[in-house]
Amino acid sequence: MNSYWDKVWEDKCPQAYAKYIDTNRDYTFIRYFKKNNIKNICDAACGFGKYSVISKINGLEINGFDVSRHSVKLTKETLELFNLQYNDYKVCSITDISFDNDYFDGTIAHSVLDHMSFNSAKKAILELKRITKPNGLIYMSFDGLEKEDLEAPHIICNGSFRYTEGKRKGMIFKHYNDEEIKELLKNEEIVLFNKFSNGVRDVIIKA
Predict the structure, then answer these.
(1) pLDDT attached to residue 158
(2) Which residue segment(s) compose the domain that 38 sits in?
(3) Number of domains in the chain
């Protein structure tokens, strides 16, 4: 998986992704974080830095990590493009995060857990809880199922799509239905569960 995500983010420039960052949108997780005095957060599997930028613009202190070194580099460049300061960004896996216990008030994992198996996602949640202070908040999102997800060449292994050809070759995607998300989080205190018309689910749990 590391090689797949490294390839995705290799040689990308922040200018190409800036158009996908809507800084004027009302993000539910930002409102929840502010309401609960969440100030210092981690952007888990930061991608191109969209949620790092959004968080920083909304007054939060931002750190992050990604399994891809190219992603970490791109996220830093994206923050710099918006003239935003940041703290520490590391290269590591979400199932083995290189931050200390109880380090953050809150964490973000946007469209991350559905790119790993159910068992790996369970491990990832434990790691997100480990780095988040007790009673802190963890925001995560789960994608809906689209036509392209089904049509791209893949095999199914333990309930996950493993793509075998084309631009997705090497990627894992598991579409969680609502019941599977609740099973994944059955031991957690869910404070928000929103479902959108495109099938995306936004979830916030307490650490």
Answers:
(1) 87
(2) 2-146+177-206
(3) 1
Q: Does any domain span residue 74?
A: yes
pTM of the model: 0.95
Average pLDDT for the chain: 95
pLDDT digit string, tens, across residues 117-172: 999 999 999 999 999 999 999 999 999 999 999 999 999 988 899 999 999 999 99
CATH of the domain at 183: 3.40.50.150
Q: How far is CA 8 from CA 2, 55, 137, 150, 185, in A?
A: 10, 23, 29, 20, 29
What whole-number distance in Å separates Cα of residue 182 and Cα of residue 166?
32
Pairing of strands 61-66, 160-163: unpaired
**Would you state the pLDDT for residue 1?**
54
Establish if 159 belongs to a structural domain.
Answer: no
Q: Which residue has the tokens 């004027």?
A: 24
Q: Does residue 73 lie within any of the structural domains? A: yes
Whether 60 has a pLDDT exceeding 80, the answer reads: yes
**Residue 170 covered by a domain:** no
Euclidean distance between CA atoms 169 and 206, whole angstroms: 35
Query: DSSP character for 205?
Result: E
- SS3 (DSSP) at 43: strand
